[in-house]
Write a structure and sequence with these properties.
Elements (H helix, E strand, L loop, with lengths): L8 E2 L5 H10 L5 E4 L5 E5 L1 H9 L19 E2 L4 H11 L3 E6 L2 E7 H6 L3 E8 L20 E2 L2 E2 H10 L3 E8 L3 H8 L8 E6 L5 H4 L13 E5 L2 E3 L3 H10 L4 E11 L3 E6 L2 E7 L2 E13 L1 H5 L9 H10 L4 E5 L4 E3 L3 H14 L4
Length: about 350
């Protein structure tokens, strides 16, 4: 198959039959109908041809009779990131690039994602009940609640796609049909999505036992499906690989101010006093990278959460590291978190 975009330029007068030949020969699954100066007149896809045949349009008819005259286009100055977002939002696999209405190129979803392509599996936990967000979650799984104009889970997946990840596994339990109906096999976004279903809740660690045992020997990025973040997933994976870690946990710094004066003493003698001191801790951010060996160590249908699982491997002298994140992070567990996410999403540029 050819990938030269000039091979998909056709005259508005050629027959539908000839367009079919171009579609079958070329890899872009698109034909651009142009005039003698390469000005874009319309586009034709395999779907357009199928609809034409259903409507009894003859294969000998000119392509102008079936072309789509208002396609989505972009200019030569549009950034690759913007092109990728546009194709994902429109659910299209390619987009003509124009300069003064003249075709100067074609960008494809596949090409836009190739630069930083990562084969590592991304495992997203999406099976929780979301009880603290009732009544919103009475008839909707929490990851499918909309933040801005998209489900939380879609925003999470788009963040990974924008970093070049293409292989996804989603664990489901509560109302899985809503998640599967929305995302399907991932082809709309140019990715691969597989599902593992928990018949009963297994915990974040237990869900690992449902993954295929014959996956490529690449670290798995795990994430709770209700976390909104701008963490750099590529940098996280690089840190894990550079340190040959068995597992890596993302952590956030959490400050807690004691509301009282704290007294330090020896026996009944006061040694020092600190008024309302601030204590600083690292807390679990719900994002992990784990080795295939760790994943395979979890038996099928074994109930365990990730902190407990990691503690077991720490006890075995395995290298479990922490990756502090400073980027935006929000665990959407309560109603005030949900409302905050609605206010934050557009300023973060994550819902475009």
């Amino acid at each position: 198959m050819s990938h030269n975009w000039k091979n998909i330029l056709v005259s508005p007068d050629i027959h539908v039959q000839e367009v079919l030949q171009v579609l079958n020969k070329e890899a872009m699954q698109l034909v651009l109908v142009v005039d003698e100066n390469d000005k874009l007149l319309g586009t034709v896809t395999d779907g357009d041809v199928r609809r034409a045949l259903i409507n009894n349009i003859a294969l000998s008819a000119p392509v102008r009779d079936i072309m789509f005259t208002t396609p989505t286009t972009a200019t030569a100055s549009t950034t690759k990131k913007s092109l990728l977002a546009l194709m994902q939002n429109k659910g299209i696999n390619s987009i003509p690039i124009l300069s003064a209405d003249k075709v100067v190129g074609v960008e494809t979803l596949h090409h836009a994602m190739m630069k930083n392509r990562h084969e590592n599996p991304v495992f997203i936990m999406a099976g929780g009940f979301g009880t603290r967000l009732r009544p919103l979650t009475d008839n909707c799984p929490k990851p499918m609640l909309h933040i801005g104009d998209k489900p939380i889970l879609e925003t999470v997946i788009l963040s990974f796609i924008n970093s070049g990840f293409i292989n996804f596994y989603i664990s489901t339990h509560f109302m899985p049909e809503q998640i599967q109906a929305h995302f399907g096999d991932g082809s709309k976004w140019g990715i691969n999505i597989h599902y593992v279903h928990e018949d009963s809740p297994l915990g974040t660690g237990g869900a690992l036992g449902l993954l295929p045992k014959n996956m490529p020997n690449l670290p798995i990025i795990m994430m709770n499906g209700d976390v909104l973040t701008k963490v750099n997933f590529e940098r996280l994976l690089e840190f894990h690989n550079d340190n040959a870690a068995h597992a890596t946990m993302c952590v956030r710094e959490y400050d807690y101010q004691v509301p009282y004066g704290v007294i330090n003493g020896e026996g009944n003698k006061i040694i020092s006093m600190v008024e309302k001191p601030t204590q600083r801790f690292f807390v679990n951010a719900g994002i992990y990278v784990v080795s295939q060996a760790l994943a395979r160590s979890v038996p099928v249908n074994h109930i365990i959460d990730m902190p407990t699982l990691l503690e077991l491997h720490i006890a075995k002298q395995k290298d479990v590291l922490m990756f502090p994140i400073h980027e935006y992070w929000l665990d959407i567990g309560r109603m005030d978190d949900f409302n905050r996410a609605q206010a934050d999403i557009h300023s973060l540029g994550m819902n475009e």
